[in-house]
Design brief:
By secondary structure, the chain is α/β, with parallel strands linked by helices. Helix content is 39%, strand content 17%. The protein is globular, with a radius of gyration of 13 Å. 36% of the residues are buried.
Length: 121
């Protein structure tokens, strides 16, 4: 699924990264705890969060996440969007809750990275 497909599915608004909407996404992670994101994310992941500070962009950059969806209609400040532009991350906002956003993506075939769950057992 492409980021463009996700934009349509979530009725999302593109805040930055319009030139990267053809990038592919295979998994998703919904979290406001960046420590959980660090533990569970792999390549081609979309991050769904309600947290709108600069740490979200820095975490996404470290993990090579190419798309962040801010839930509940949240829009980060211009400083956060500028950082996302600089590192090449697509930023979307949707009016859906994190729970609904994850559910819609799941219904469309996007899955979580369950590889790491076996490691915790």
């Amino acid at each position: 699924m492409t980021i463009s497909d996700i934009t349509v599915l979530l009725d999302a608004r593109v805040l930055c990264g319009e030139d990267k909407l053809d990038s592919e996404v295979q998994t998703a992670c919904g979290s406001d705890l960046m420590s959980d994101v660090l533990a569970f994310v792999k390549d081609k992941t979309v991050l769904i969060t309600g947290l709108t500070n600069i740490h979200v962009i820095r975490t996404a950059e470290m993990l090579d996440i190419h798309c962040i969806v801010f839930a509940r209609g949240k829009v980060p400040g211009e400083d956060v969007l500028e950082e996302a532009r600089e590192v090449g991350i697509v930023v979307l906002t949707t009016k859906h809750t994190t729970y609904t956003t994850c559910g819609l993506l799941f219904q469309a075939g996007i899955r979580a990275n369950n590889d790491c769950l076996a490691q915790q057992g």
